[in-house]
Amino acid sequence: MNATKTVRLWDFPVRLFHWSLVIAIVTSWWTNQELMIDIHALAGYCVLALVLFRIAWGFVGSSNARFSNFLTGPRKVFGYLMKLPTGGVTELTYPGHNPAGGWMVAVLIVLVAVQAISGLFASEDTFLFFDGPLVAYASSDIARTMNFIHHTNINLIYIAVGLHVFAALFYLVVKRENLIRAMVTGMHHVPESIAAGFMQIRFASPVLGIAILVVCGLAVWALVAVARGG
Fold this sequence. Notes:
CATH superfamily: Transmembrane di-heme cytochromes, Chain C
Strand content: 5-15%
Distance between the termini: 63 Å
Structural class: mainly alpha
CATH topology: Fumarate Reductase Cytochrome B subunit
């Protein structure tokens, strides 16, 4: 058996974003009913703040969290997918997201951003009796369009999340690589022969990450407060 080494893989801000987004999305799904619509809206605001943070962290965060590190060209993506069934590549090959997983992250960010933004303009006057904070600044046509997007886009999110979970379980069961644990602890076990690549990850300050997240949260709070008139 090859010797393994425990290496640091994911920084605290990325892990905080990941699990906070999971909680916010589940909360939003669970509270999509009249008696809990205010909690549903609050979860949506949290999603928006988290998305803003992840976009910022994709430019100034740790090296393997930056978009320039994991968004690759189609040749690398298809090459990775073609080799995956044969065992030619593993997640351990990449000190971060693999070529396909990187684009899945980008797609998820876009989808949840669209969901959160459309919710700001959506108007529910049937059984939820809720208006988004920006609906007063939009025409009725825009509100109807945002309602349609909000109710349709969520299905795309479910599909993307399902693929994401399937991929994590595939690696856990088939390839015996616990990516879920790595996203919890930030640490990963890799063969010593490739550990040097992981040791080259440049980690940004977690304090900077928390500061950016706080700023994003305050920005969303200010937007909603001003739009609501208070």
